[in-house]
Amino acid sequence: STTPVTVTVTGAAGQIGYALLFRIASGQLLGADVPVKLNLLEIPQGMKAAEGTAMELDDCAFPLLAGIDIHDDAAAAFDGVNVGLLVGARPRGAGMERGDLLAANGGIFGPQGAAINAGAADDVRILVVGNPANTNALIASAHAPDVPAERFNAMMRLDHNRALAQLAAKTGSSVAEVKRVAIWGNHSAKQYPDIAHATIAGRPAPEVVGDSAWVTDTFIPTVAKRGAAIIEARGASSAASAANAAIEHVHDWVNGTPEGDWTSVAMPSDGSYGVPEGLISSFPAVSRDGRWEIVQGLDIAADARAGIDVSVAELAEERDAVKEFGLL
Ligand code: NAX
Predict the structure, then answer these.
(1) Residue 207: is it exposed, middle or buried by C-beta count within 10 angstroms (0-12/13-18/19+)?
(2) Quick one: which of 246, 228, 245 has its CA closest to 237?
């Protein structure tokens, strides 16, 4: 096609933005034959750095990059948007309570949702990366009543990829041999990484691992707390891996997931697996014809049930808190 796809990236001057924009512009988000127009959204303090990043994008002379606009106004940034990557968020400051964090982000994602509602293209797809991602996505969606709720996702792909990597390392396999890992629930330390249905080179993963204590005592906490471990090691939070996950999420949403495998996506629950309808919770999912479908019919053992319930309860608490703030 020759009509450029409009991709809006918020928090464009941040570290994930810096790792993300060049990959979008090079064609990795939507395909090597799809031109993109980039809309960068920043707060006023971030505008100058965003302009610098735009200069570097120019200097790459990407053949697919059809233009870059930089905005500090959400309505302009989301006008005509086809794909929105909502990365910019309010980080937790010193002494900030969880409630303050939810409220501060509500003040960002509510107006952005309204701007999406007003200006987005009919096929718009929104991926929320900025934390607390699931609840921020819920807030944005609630402010975009004319956009189908299923077009609002929160990113679990980084957690999913972390699980693939840990499982491959433990079993001496290549990540390409690991299929059907799942992350359930919230993108938080209470997520539930699940290998019960996973296979490694076609064999059941639990059998290949052969050590159920490793799964509960090492694998699950390592995946769930990986973000903190990266901060500890790098002195900064995950950026390139987060950008990579965002690229893969949107790529698969648009182009489909490979036959025989699935990924993990936080999307509005339809009540599957006992997750209350409407919560933006992570499920194993496949993409067909540009839409996510939750993988159905998986047996959920008691330990998984308990893990999923804990994570979903946290999402329900977050929803109730932002409802109380009048953000839903
Ligand atoms: P940075 O602090 O480097 O960048 C954030 C950028 O957002 C800044 O440039 C800031 O000016 C901008 N911003 C703030 N409010 C904005 C608004 N209202 N509109 C537009 N831009 C705004 O953070 P970075 O490391 O890039 O992380 C961004 C977000 O991703 C954080 O909320 C972080 O917690 C979250 N993450 C989510 C992950 C996930 O798996 N879902 C993993 C990585 C990351 O931790």
Answers:
(1) exposed
(2) 228
Instruction: Give yes or no for residue 84 CB within 6 A of ligand 1.
Output: no
- pLDDT tens per residue, range 40-63: 999 999 999 999 999 999 999 999
Would residue 324 count as lying in a domain? no
CA of 131, closest atom in ligand 1:
32
* CATH number of the domain to which 248 belongs: 3.90.110.10
Same domain, 86 and 198: no
| CATH number, residue 120 | 3.40.50.720
* Residue 226 labelled as part of a binding site: no
| Domain-located, residue 325 | no
Q: Look up the domain containing 107 and give its range.
A: 5-153
Instruction: Please choose from 9, 10, 16 the residue to mutate so as to test ligand 1's pocket, defined by most ligand atoms within 8 A of CB.
Output: 16
Average pLDDT, the chain: 97
Q: Is the peptide bond before 193 cis (omega within 30 degrees of 0)?
A: no
Assess whether 252 and 172 both reside in one domain: yes
* Per-residue pLDDT reduced to its tens digit, 256-279: 999 999 999 999 999 999 999 999
What pLDDT, on the 0 to 100 scale, is given for residue 81? 98
pTM score of the predicted model: 0.98
Contact between residue 36 and residue 3 where contact means Cβ atoms under 8 Å apart: no
Residue with tokens 């999923």: 308
User: Is residue 327 in some structural domain?
Assistant: no
